[in-house]
Amino acid sequence: MQAALMVSTLGMLAGCQTPHHEDRSTQRVRPLRMPNPATLYCTKKGGTLTAQHDDQKGQVNFCHLPDGTVMEEWALFRRDNPKPPVQ
Asked: Which stretches does the entry tag as region Disordered (predicted)?
């Protein structure tokens, strides 16, 4: 009697178990982080980036544009993409 009870209990528990395999082809992969918009803008303008260390700011990236202009990447981005005025 105890053996039959144990077998039926184990059978019910096994039926409640979820499968361990997952179909990874339908899972969405979230990107780890958003790309830096200033870096993307520099490369979109045909520029190349160099990184320099600043004691106060840490790493600072400079954009070297095809016309020879060199600007800090965020300064270039803000110059060409000003904030719209607040209304």
From this structure: 16-35
